[in-house]
Design goal:
The complex is a heterodimer of chains A (115) and B (112). With 115 residues, chain A is mainly beta. Helices cover 0% and strands 49% of the residues of chain A. Chain A has no helices and eleven strands. In chain A, strands 2, 4, 5, 6, 9, 10 and 11 form a seven-stranded mixed beta sheet that branches. Chain A has a four-stranded antiparallel beta sheet with strand order 1-3-8-7, with no helix packed on it. In chain A, strand 7 (65-68) and strand 8 form a beta hairpin. Chain A starts with a strand and ends with a strand. Chain B is mainly β. Chain B is 0% helix and 54% strand. Chain A binds chain B through residues 4, 31, 33, 40-45, 48, 50, 55-56, 58, 91, 93, 98-101, 104-109, and chain B through 9, 32, 34, 36, 41-46, 49, 51, 89, 91, 93, 97-105.
Chain lengths: 115, 112
């Protein structure tokens, strides 16, 4: 286990379709985060899990977005009825703790293009 | 080379020179700050972090300076190498939350 793994790397979908992304964190990390990054911008926080509990959600996470981490290991992020404005890189990160360089590690992301 | 002001999208320096990337953060309640490097097609990579009870921290070829009075953070990279070319983001953690708030980033280009 060498890092945070995200699948797929790229996804092209038609407007109105549903998409689901998967994140496999570093195995001993109990904290998992989802961020969204648009071109030329820094990542924006979407949501945070500690084990299987979703403890923080951003206002960016509209009703069309849902994230789960059912067994406290991998996580999925689903977007329903996609819109062109959803086109972005979706990044997952995991850590043991937030501060002090406890391995807050990002994956390489899933790039979503809505056409 | 040095980036100044709240936002300067690009910074070009000669290989071997030192570079300084600046960042103005927004929230005086932030207590933890991180610098990330992001190469094309990859996720952000941790470089160095600093807590609000410190004003300087050094790593290998990198130094982070924190000025809480003016809410300013800087990243100094010594003896830049071609592999340092990337976009650099500062990020702040607001007390009581688990989220990081990222700045817009600076693209650093190392000229041979």
């Amino acid at each position: 286990d060498t890092g945070v793994s995200q699948n797929p790397r790229h996804k092209i979908t038609k407007r109105g379709q549903n998409v689901t992304f998967r994140c496999d964190p570093i195995s001993e990390h109990n904290r998992l985060y989802w961020y969204r990054q648009t071109l030329g911008q820094g990542p924006e926080f979407l949501t945070y899990f500690q084990n299987e509990a979703q403890l923080e959600k951003s206002r960016l996470l509209s009703d069309r977005f849902s994230a789960e981490r059912p067994k406290g290991s991998f996580s999925t992020l689903e977007i329903q009825r996609t819109e062109q404005g959803d086109s972005a890189m979706y990044l997952c990160a995991s850590s043991l703790k937030l501060a002090g360089n406890y391995g807050y590690t990002f994956g390489s992301g899933t790039r979503l293009t809505v056409v | 080379g040095e980036s100044v002001g709240l936002h300067l999208p690009t910074l070009s320096v000669q290989e071997g020179d030192n570079s300084i990337i600046n960042c103005a953060y927004s929230n005086s309640a932030s207590d933890y700050f991180i610098w990330y490097k992001q190469e094309s097609g990859k996720g952000p990579q941790f470089i160095i972090d600093i807590r609000s009870n410190m004003d300087k921290r050094q790593g290998q070829r990198v130094t982070v300076l924190l000025n809480k009075t003016v809410k300013h953070l800087s990243l100094q990279i010594a003896a830049t190498q071609p592999g340092d070319s990337a976009v650099y983001f500062c990020a702040e953690n607001i007390v009581g939350t688990q989220k990081l708030v990222f700045g817009q980033g600076t693209r650093l280009t190392i000229n041979p």
